[in-house]
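This part of the workshop introduces the protein records we will be handling. The structure tokens are whole numbers drawn from a learned vocabulary of backbone shapes. The record below serves as our worked example for the rest of this section.

===
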Amino acid sequence: MTQTRANLLLLFAGLIWGLGFVAQSTAMENIGPLTFIGLRFIVATAAVLPFALRETARATKPLSASDYRAFAILGSMLFSGMVLQQTGLLTTSVTNAGFLTGLYVVLVPILGVLLFSQWPHPIVWLSAAFSLTGIFMLSGGALNSFSQGDWLMIGGAFFWALQGLFIARYALRIGRPVTMACTQFAVVAIAGLIAAMIFEQTSWQAIQAAAPEILFTGVFSSGVAFTLQAIGTRYTSAPQAAIFLSSEALFAALFGAIILSERLPMIGLAGCALIFLSMMMVEIVPRLRFTKTKPVKTIFAENPE
């Protein structure tokens, strides 16, 4: 798969997450965040399992114990990010949530340098700054006073960034992206349901009321989008993947206008344009740097992982 196609998969994942933002927010009108997470990822696991089994049947070698440990680590990062984000939505504004979650765009290259000494193409730093600024403008260009939910969102952004980095490393080494995604989902589902049984009380009527949101986010926002993330990240760098996935904020605004009849102010429209510009920069500029000296087919191998 070429890097361009991988980035398009990540862009499509951002589109799905943007569409699912409303469902993720409204589900907690009926059930708690832990119950929602557990049920959502049960659906996600069931949706992806047939494809994971097919991938396993076609594999040339079995997975090792260390591979499954890597998948479990990714699952724990995904669970931590989901819990912090979902719980944070209870006590923070949508404006703050959208901006603070977008911090992972900047945290990915920073953590990549700190943990693995991976220095991305210089354009990634500028594109990350543009993308973060665009998310801030999309949120209205202002933050309310910080609440507990805001700090939870920052913690969630940290775990999203960690997950993005480690997915890039494990997906390249193991080469089983669908199985990796399915195992992550199962870990999150089990952890979410155990935590829900301990900390929350939920009735069957409440689950039925939230069923549309659970099914949509389970099949599409989790099953499809996170699998696309696992596949796409295998063929691009983690910082570039983070920038393309940040399109979630752009698509959330778009679907808010289409579905909920919301209208963006001029500063929000400018933020959308800046996010789009950041994605084009990170896709096009690295190619322009090498086109005079190297054939196109070698560019993808030269990108840092």
User: Anything to note?
Assistant: The chain has a mean pLDDT of 80.
